[in-house]
Amino acid sequence: MRSCRHTFLLLAALALAIATAPAANLAFSYVSEGDPLPPMMLEDLKGTEVSYLGEESALARVFIFLKGGHPRSRDVAREAAELVPEFQGRRVHWAAIVSDRHGTAWADSFAAVLPGMDVLIDRGDALYGKLGVVLSPVVGIGNAEGILHAYLPYRKVHFQAALRTQLRLLLGDIDASEADALLNPDTTRIRDTEQAACLRKLKLAGMLATRGKTEKARVQVEAVLERCPELPEAYEALADILREQGDLQGAENASRRAADRRGTSPRQCKGSGPWDPLPSPFLKAIRSPRWRRRPAWPSARQAGPPWPRGPRGSSSGNPNPHHASS
Known about the structure:
- By secondary structure, this protein is of the alpha/beta class.
- The protein folds into two domains: 21-183, Glutaredoxin; 189-290, Alpha Horseshoe (Serine Threonine Protein Phosphatase 5, Tetratricopeptide repeat), CATH 1.25.40.10.
- The protein is 43% helix and 12% strand.
- The chain has helices spanning 2-19, 71-83, 105-113, 126-131, 159-171, 176-183, 185-210, 214-227, 232-244, 248-262, 300-303, and strands at residues 41-44, 49-51, 60-66, 92-99, 118-122, 138-142, 148-153.
- It has a seven-stranded mixed β-sheet.
- The radius of gyration is 35 Å and the shape is elongated.
C-alpha cells in the first residue's frame, strides 16, 4: 500500500513538473534556445558518417526527429519536403533523424518521401539522449554558429508557415519584428486593436479641443499616451495643445518625441517665438473652431416691430420687415 502511494506521488510530481516546465524546454531537456548544439556524426543510408548539422558554410541547419509508423511523422516529412525546393541553393541543410529501435526499414521509407534531405540513423538513440528529446516528431533549427535558434513541435495548423518564417529570418529575408508578426498573428491583431482604440480616444480629444476645452483634451491625450506610448499622433496632438496653452518648451519636447517615433524631423517653427510648430491637421480647428462661426441673423426684435403670423404662404404673415407691403 505504501509503495503504491509512493509511486502515485512520484507520478503526480512528474506530471506537475512537465505542466509547469518552460516552453523552451518542452522539446529538448538538455538544450534550450540559444544553447550550442552538440556535434555528432550519424550514419546515412549508405553507412557513411555525416554531421547532422551539415557543412560549416550552412546558414540554417534543420534537423527533424521522426518516429517510424507515426502518422504525425509522415505529416512532418511531407510538409518539410515541400519546403526543400523553395530554399534550394540557399545554404540550408536538411536532415531527418530516425531511431534504429525498430530497424532501418523506416529510414528507407522516409528517404522515399524526403528527396534532397539527408536521412540519418541514430544508433542506440545517442543523439536523442544527448539532446534529451521529449517530443517527437519535432523540428530543431540551428543557426550558422551551431546554436539552437528555435524548435517546432508539429502542429497541424501553420506548421509549414512557421518553419518557413524561421528560415527566412536566419537567411536575412525578414527582420525579427516581421518574423514576430508572422509567427504571432493574434498578438499583432491585438496590438492593432489597441492602436485603433487609442486613435478613437485621440479623435475625442480633438473634438474637445475644437470646442475650446483644451485642458480636458490634454487629459484625454495624456491618457492615450499611457495606453499607447509609441503613438506619434498622440505626441503631435499634445504638442498642439501645449502650444495653445503657452507651454512652448513642452510643445517642443512632444513634437520631437513624435518625430522620433516617425523617424522624421520635428515640425519646424513659423513665427517669432523660439518654438512655434505648425499645427497638425488633427487639431487645426483650435485657432478657429467652426462652432463659433455662426451667421448673425437679425432677430425680429432688432429688425422692427413684430409681425403677425398668418397662414403659411399668406403675405400678411411676412416676418421680414424689408419686404413688408406698403
